[in-house]
Amino acid sequence: MTIWKKYREIRYAYDFGDDWHVTVELEQIVDDYYFGFPTLLDGAETAPPEDVGRMHGFYEFLKAYRDEKHPEHEVWKAWAESSYFREYDPDRINERLKGLNYKKTEWNKIYHEGYKIIEDKYRKK
């Protein structure tokens, strides 16, 4: 967490060929978070599939992919599946983040039974 407090954001190149640059900004530090892994609290969209072609291409892809009546919907849907594209899914992201243990979970401060979380204000049930 120290690096986040110091820099407040990280930047990285997602795709060198298409020159995608991503910025992740720290908006808030939650003092009463007692889990030993990070949790996504809010977000939007997902990473673009490979070779979709910059932002304009990504938004054109999303328009066709999400609209079943779009003339190119089936083509884009098949291409997306072959590229392992997934829609934004915060529950899936949080499940994957549980594998990133970076500190000890403070179970004495979490409402649980046998280490199964009963109530948690940071995750949906």
Could you please describe the fold and organization of this structure?
- The chain has 125 residues and is α+β, with helices and mostly antiparallel strands.
- Helix 2 crosses helix 3.
- The protein is built from four helices and four strands, in the order αββαααββ.
- It is 30% helix and 14% strand.
Helicity level: 25-40%
The strands making up the biggest β-sheet line up spatially as: 1-2
Radius of gyration: 19 Å
Number of strands: 4
The tally of helices reads 4
Structural class: alpha+beta
Defining key terms:
125 residues, alpha+beta, two-stranded antiparallel ribbon, two-stranded antiparallel sheet, 30% helix
Layout of secondary structure:
Layout: H1 2-7, E1 9-15, E2 20-25, H2 54-66, H3 73-82, H4 90-97, E3 112-113, E4 116-117
Antiparallel strand pairs: 1-2, 3-4
Write a concise synopsis of the structure shown.
The protein has helices at 2-7, 54-66, 73-82, 90-97; strands spanning 9-15, 20-25, 112-113, 116-117. By secondary structure, it is of the alpha+beta class. A two-stranded antiparallel sheet has the order 1-2. The chain has a two-stranded antiparallel sheet with strand order 3-4.
